[in-house]
TrEMBL record:
Signal peptide: none annotated. It comes from Eragrostis curvula. Belongs to the DEAD box helicase family. DDX52/ROK1 subfamily. Its EC number is 3.6.4.13. It catalyses: ATP + H2O = ADP + phosphate + H(+). Keywords: ATP-binding, Helicase, Hydrolase, Nucleotide-binding, RNA-binding. This is RNA helicase. InterPro entries: DDX52/Rok1_DEADc, DEAD/DEAH_box_helicase_dom, DEAD_box_RNA_helicase, Helicase_ATP-bd, Helicase_C-like, P-loop_NTPase, RNA_helicase_DEAD_Q_motif. GO terms for molecular function: ATP binding; hydrolase activity; RNA binding; RNA helicase activity.
């Protein structure tokens, strides 16, 4: 019905007079319905004519085409139009070919560029003795300028580098800064005094916005208070002119801090203090974007593991970037750390767990405890090249040696865990300022402390492990300067001598062949009961 309506509507006003054309109409009615076969068969004679006509016309056309082609340009408009169209069509086709050719060339060009970049990165890594493992590791920095060109470093931050007279990045900085800036986690192991602090601080400063109110954005964990205080100082120097809130977790802050209202972008702490603040004072670490474990192997040592675990758990931001830095990274610690890290890149500068090649190392046989004191006095008489740092086994021995040296005309001081925080900081500052010539110390300042001008480290007491040795002697020979390390040993130390001798040989220092022939000790730690340090004759 709708169809009828539609057709009547369409034909409205048209009148077909069936009576007038009745005969014609009848003829049309008689015609069989046209089918393809029927259309061809009954009209065979006429179609034969048509076919002949068609082939004649075709022959004429092709003759004309040949003539036109021979004439060159004299073509009909229609043909020209089609030719144009054909050309256009052809153009699209050839454009397609061209485009895909261009695309291919672009892919090849890009691939070659990537290959060149990979090659350049490999050359740089070889040149700076950088060893990496991990997928798609960003190329090392060729210069600090690349922080601007590649990563858009803020001009004020960049200026701070030149004000600190840092002209070239150190090898560890060259590789770990791009890694952290590209949002990757990493384990980094590089010699003492090779600029690891800047390597983890600078990417943080570049990435987080200063003066945020959204909670702590970066946490740096250090094993000792002295190192934490030093890291805050370094961070403030690097962040000069920028309004970052950089905080040291002091004892007071940890115990009575109002963390809800605290403005803090970067927080530096020892593990226990931070853990206390989190568990007892409600410090929220859920917005932390960067977590650094400096001197990571020390942090993971027995006693700290649970605390570190709890801090790592409190930093619950799923997109957090964690990094581990140290001059020594035992395989066991690396394996442990891997369990909490995601797609981490491993970066080793030089040889893993080796001493800085800038330090001249010596082993001196002193026979007995008394022999050590004599040897020390003798070496002071021959050539005292202050400032000097002397390491002893514990705080009692530090006090004993301090008493002995007080008799001599040497400006000596002592640092150990019985002193107040301020006394400890003063002792470090006095050595740095040259007010003290000789500082007697326990392990508290063996790691991370930066005494730029320190000339000599004396291991009065044999270190308890190869790692302890590397960190102790690493207080000198920093930032490209040379240093000297003297290690006394007695009969009791002989079983552990070979372990330390290996560190000497791997950094190119000479060791008597009889020491190298000693058996290696399987035990990792060397702890010896020693006679007190005294010049007084024994009572028995
Ligand atoms: N690119 C640089 N150019 C020159 N000096 C630098 C550069 N980067 C850092 N330094 C300086 O090198 C010294 C050692 O740096 P840092 O304390 O970071 O060493 P480290 O590798 O952390 O040593 P450790 O393993 O003993 O902790 C510091 O005085 C620091 O200011």
């Amino acid at each position: 019905m709708a169809e009828a309506k539609l057709s009547s509507g369409l034909f409205a006003g048209t009148h077909f007079n069936r009576k007038r054309f009745a005969a014609d109409f009848a003829r049309f009615q008689e015609c069989p319905p046209p089918t393809t076969a029927a259309a061809a068969a009954p009209s065979a004679p006429s179609s034969e004519k048509k076919r002949k006509r068609k082939s004649k016309a075709k022959a004429k056309k092709s003759k004309k085409k040949r003539e036109d082609a021979a004439a060159g340009s004299d073509v009909v408009e229609g043909f020209n139009v089609f030719k144009g169209l054909a050309d256009k069509k052809l153009g699209v086709e050839s454009e397609k070919v061209e485009t895909s050719k261009d695309e291919d060339e672009e892919v090849i060009r890009r691939r070659k560029e990537i290959e060149r970049e990979i090659e350049r990165a490999a050359i740089l890594r070889k040149r700076f003795d950088i060893h990496i493992s991990g997928q798609n590791v960003p190329a090392p920095l060729e210069s600090f300028e690349e922080l601007v060109s590649r990563y858009g470093c803020d001009s004020k931050l960049f200026k701070n580098l030149s004000e600190l007279r840092f002209q070239e990045p150190t090898p560890i900085q060259r590789q770990t800064i791009p890694i952290l800036l590209s949002g990757r986690e990493c384990f980094a192991c590089a010699p003492t005094g090779s600029g690891k602090t800047l390597a983890f601080l600078f990417p943080i400063l570049m990435k987080i916005k200063p003066g945020s109110k959204g909670g702590v954005r970066a946490v740096i964990l250090c094993p000792t208070r002295e190192l934490a205080a030093q890291t805050v100082r370094e961070c403030k120097k690097l962040a000069k002119r920028k309004k970052y809130y950089i905080k040291l977790m002091t004892k007071d802050l940890s115990k009575s801090g109002n963390f809800k209202d605290m403005h803090c972008d970067i927080l530096v702490s020892t593990p226990l203090r931070l853990d206390h603040a989190v568990r007892k004072k409600g410090l929220d670490l859920s917005s932390v974007e960067y977590l650094v474990l400096d001197e990571s192997d020390k942090l993971f040592e027995l006693g700290f593991v649970e605390v570190i675990d709890s801090v790592v758990a409190a930093c619950s931001n799923p997109s957090i970037i964690r990094s581990l830095f140290s001059a020594t990274l035992p395989d066991s610690i690396e394996a442990l750390a891997r369990t909490i890290m995601h797609d981490a890149v491993r970066v080793i500068v030089g040889r893993k767990n080796s001493a800085s090649s800038l330090i001249k190392q010596k082993l001196i046989f002193a026979g007995t405890e008394k022999g050590k004191l004599i040897a020390l006095r003798q070496s002071f008489q021959e050539s005292l090249n202050p400032p000097v740092l002397i390491f002893v086994q514990n705080k009692d021995r530090a006090k004993e040696l301090y008493k002995e040296l007080a008799f001599d005309d040497v400006r000596a001081d002592v640092i150990h865990s019985d002193l107040t925080e301020q006394q400890r900081l003063d002792a470090v500052d006095n050595l740095r300022a040259g007010k003290t010539w000789v500082l007697i110390a326990t392990e508290v300042i063996a790691r991370g402390m930066d005494f730029k001008g320190l000339n000599c480290v004396i291991n009065y007491d044999f270190p308890e492990s190869a790692a302890a040795y590397i960190h102790r002697i690493g207080r000198c020979g920093r930032a490209g300067r040379s240093g000297e390390a003297i290690t006394f040993f007695t009969e009791e130390d002989k079983p552990f001598l070979r372990n330390i001798a290996n560190v000497l040989t791997s950094s190119g220092c000479e060791v008597p062949s009889w020491i190298m022939a000693l058996p290696k000790l399987k035990r990792k730690k060397h702890r010896v009961e020693r006679d007190p340090i005294s010049t007084l004759p024994d009572e028995d």
